[in-house]
Each structure stands twice: as C-alpha cells, then as structure tokens.
C-alpha cells in the first residue's frame, strides 16, 4: 500500500488508551479456565448440595431476580451455550480468535475477502505494547496514512469506500449513553436501576463474556438496550493478523446471534484501536465502527482514583451546561466493567440528565429504529424518544443450540477499496455540522425488504467488473 516509505518513531504521547485496562482482562483470561471447569461441574451435577443452594437460572427472567453479587457471579451452565461449545463452534473463550474451528463456509468467506484487505501491517502487540513500533509516513509526507485512531484519533478513513467512524451525534445537547465490556455477571442491580430511571443505553458486549454469562446478555436485549459487539477477547485489534481480526469480529457477532438471536451491525474497538485494515474487515462483515468523543476514563479508576474520574465526568457535564454541545451531541465512553465503574454510572446518571437535554442510546439518537438484521426488534426514533417513548416492540431473546445461518451479500472492489456499506443510521440523523473532521457517520437507511436486501446486512455495490456475491455463512 505504501511505497518509498519513510519511518517515524511513534510518539507515546500521541496514544489515547481507552476501554477496560488490559491488566484487568489478563486477570479475566487467567480466571477463564477455572470458571469453565466450575461450569462443567455444575453441568455434570456432581454435587447435590451445591445444586440445592445454587440460584435458579432456568431462563433470563429467573436470572434477573438474583441480586446478590456473589450468587450472580457463580458460574453456571446454560444448555444452548454448552451444546455449542461441546460441538467446537467457538474458539477458546478469552483467547485471541482464529478460524481453526470455523465451518468451511466461514473460511471461504474470509478467503474471498482476504485478497482485497488493505495491505497494512499489524501494529504493536495484542496487549498494546507499541514501544518499539515505528509508524510509516506516506510518500507525500502525510502522517497517519492508515487512519490509525490510536495514533491521532483519526475517524475519517483514508482507504477508498470505508465509512467514517461514528464518534459524535448530529442531535445537539445529547449524551450518547454507552457501556462497554459487558455483560458483567453482577449487573442486575445496575440494570434494575436503569429500568427505574427509564433509561436505555448502547451496550458493547464482549463475545467471551456473552458465552460466560449468556442470561445476563439476554437481559440487555430484554430490557430494551441497543446491543453492539466489542470483539471476542478484547485485544488491540490493529496488532492482529487479518485472520485474527476477522475471527474476533465474526465470533463476537456470532456469540450475540446464537445467544440473543439478533445480528448486530455495530461494534466498538477495544481501546479505540482501529485503522483502515480493521475497518475494512468490520465493514465487510456488516459492522459500523463506533468510537466516542468524550472519555470518562472510568476503566482506570484503580490508578487514577475515584475523585479523578468524577472530575472527568464533571468536565463533560460542565460542557453540557455551558453550550459546548449546542451543535453536536457527544458519545461518551463509560463501562459496566466492575463494581466501581457501575457505581459511578449510577451516581452520575441523574447529573447527566440535568446537564444534557437528552440522554439516549447511539442508535436512537441516529434514528436507527431497526438496528439488527432480524425483524421484530423496533426501537424508537429520536423524535419518539424525546417525546417520552423509550421502547416500541422487542421480541424475546432466542438462543440456539446449533449454528444459525445468515446470508451475507459481500462485494469488494480493487485491493484496499471495499464497496460494501453498513446501513446503520439514517442520513438525516448523521449529517454533522460540527468542527470535527468528517463529522458523524452512517450509511443511508434502506427499507427492509428493498432491492438492496435486508437493512443492516452488507449492501453490495458493483465495482468495476466485480458483482455482488451472496455467501451464506453460519453466524
């Protein structure tokens, strides 16, 4: 992709690390094996006494009644997920995903895509070590040729055909409410609180968490939150190979599909780490990249202190009061990572509602009333939301014990130029007039059942002599 490349040392100060601290996820991965063993013990029913005292977890509704955090986080076996794992459908939880267990259809999908992925080298390591990285400059001397968000917070891709990241909102005085790293095993009290507040949010779920805590994931959909993906194992995505990036996105999307019954069309890169190579793969899988414009840094509470995080919240709140968001609303990075981030979320939600005119999920603020490929899940548009309607029509979560097939129309153009677009939001809702480069993004919202196919599946456009080919894969 780059010829006659000049080398430049990547300045550490330019980085903007975000999302759950990598050390936290290293601990999660170390605990995964023991958790899986505990789940197998529960499934085998080896202890009658333990079974008698264990909380009842027959479905989402019964699981939602558990409010003791220790009981909530007791590993359990959910038959549909157990069947899928026994069949080797998914990679090892919390390990970097690859296609070693993938069905032939999925491998064929990746192979059909791989040749056209932008030729951008992986950056750093999967745990975020970029100390020795030297980032290339383009022939014309321009910095950040790959639109690497981690480097300069670039959100307007430089590769042809890629949609800009969603990072703010065209609706003024609006706080785009998002929570990363779920589903948290102990989130029932938090979700109860959101229900009491009649507040919905955009939840970015990690695929491994969805398999670890499937009923908790189902509750997110049941309660009317917008569900998006947050990769399979929560790694720095630009450090991974093409196959690993594809698998991390594919299996996170698949986990949500198999456990909740919906095919999501949005994702957020862990730590915000995305470049045009990763965007290309995500867009080809029908996933819009969503970043943020404000960061509370709540994930770093252990090192920054609670007072510091509260100060970060208050800085954004002050902007809501002094007119800083009079032109564009903001998407704010917050987490359901642990008890500390959750308690901060509960503490500040009333203050957010006081400082901002509107508090809404990202999809709602962008008038995306049908955020999933499947029908039966209708959310309010922004006008309905501001009038007080927080829910329209949501089907119940549907888990499966075998792979659910999905047809993905896929079309790519010349190398480095994807021709597939994701119809995540309406153009009217995303025509940003703010000062940020590129503004908010989103494809045109087609009608369900139109000639372009199902809303949110990839809309295949003919590029040159290459036409649209529908590939059925198991999602």
UniProtKB/TrEMBL annotation:
Residues 173-362 form the NodB homology domain. CDD domains: CE4_MrCDA_like. The keyword Cell wall biogenesis/degradation applies. The chain crosses the membrane at residues 454-474. Keywords: Carbohydrate metabolism, Cell membrane, Cell wall, Cell wall biogenesis/degradation, Chitin degradation, Cobalt, Glycoprotein, GPI-anchor, Hydrolase, Lipoprotein, Membrane, Metal-binding, Polysaccharide degradation, Secreted, Signal, Transmembrane, Transmembrane helix. Belongs to the polysaccharide deacetylase family. This is chitin deacetylase. It comes from Rhodotorula paludigena. The lineage of its organism: Eukaryota, Fungi, Dikarya, Basidiomycota, Pucciniomycotina.
């Amino acid at each position: 992709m780059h010829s006659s490349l000049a080398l430049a040392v990547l300045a550490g100060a330019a980085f903007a690390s975000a999302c759950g601290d990598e050390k936290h996820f290293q601990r999660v991965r170390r605990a995964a094996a023991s958790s899986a063993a505990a789940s197998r013990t529960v499934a085998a029913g080896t202890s009658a006494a333990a079974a008698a005292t264990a909380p009842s977890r027959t479905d989402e509704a019964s699981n939602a009644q558990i409010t003791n955090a220790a009981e909530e986080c007791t590993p359990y076996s959910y038959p549909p997920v157990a069947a899928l794992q026994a069949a080797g459908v998914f990679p090892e939880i919390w390990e970097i995903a690859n296609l070693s267990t993938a069905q032939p259809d999925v491998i064929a999908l990746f192979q059909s895509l791989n040749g056209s992925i932008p030729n951008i080298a992986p950056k750093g390591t999967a745990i975020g070590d970029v100390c020795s990285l030297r980032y290339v400059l383009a022939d014309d001397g321009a910095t950040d040729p790959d639109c690497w968000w981690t480097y300069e917070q670039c959100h307007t891709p430089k590769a042809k055909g890629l949609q800009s990241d969603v990072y703010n909102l065209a609706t003024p005085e609006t706080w785009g409410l998002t929570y990363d790293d779920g589903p948290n095993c102990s989130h029932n009290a938090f979700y109860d609180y959101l229900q009491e507040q009649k507040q919905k949010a955009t939840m970015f779920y990690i695929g491994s968490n969805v398999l670890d805590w499937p009923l908790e994931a189902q509750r997110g959909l049941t309660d009317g939150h917008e569900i998006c993906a947050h990769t399979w194992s929560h790694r720095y995505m630009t450090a991974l190979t093409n196959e690993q990036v594809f698998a991390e996105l594919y299996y996170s999307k698949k986990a949500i599909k198999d456990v909740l019954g919906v095919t999501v069309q949005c994702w957020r890169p862990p730590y915000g780490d995305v470049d045009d190579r990763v965007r290309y793969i995500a867009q080809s899988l029908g996933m819009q990249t969503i970043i943020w414009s404000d960061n509370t840094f709540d994930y770093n509470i252990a090192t920054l202190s609670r007072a510091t995080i509260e100060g970060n919240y208050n800085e954004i709140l002050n902007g809501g009061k002094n007119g800083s968001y009079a032109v564009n609303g903001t998407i704010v990075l917050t987490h359901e990572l642990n008890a500390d981030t959750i308690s901060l979320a509960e503490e500040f939600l009333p203050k957010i509602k006081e400082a901002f005119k509107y508090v809404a999920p990202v999809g709602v603020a962008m008038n995306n009333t049908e955020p999933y490929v499947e029908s039966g899940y209708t959310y309010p548009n922004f006008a309905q939301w501001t009038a007080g309607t927080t829910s329209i029509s949501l089907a119940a979560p549907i888990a499966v014990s075998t792979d659910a097939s999905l047809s993905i129309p896929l079309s790519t153009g010349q190398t480095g130029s994807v021709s597939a677009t994701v119809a995540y939001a309406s153009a009217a809702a995303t025509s940003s007039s703010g000062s940020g480069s590129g503004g908010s993004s989103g494809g045109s919202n087609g009608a369900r059942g139109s000639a372009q196919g199902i809303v949110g599946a990839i809309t295949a456009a003919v590029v040159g002599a290459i036409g649209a080919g529908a590939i059925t894969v198991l999602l």
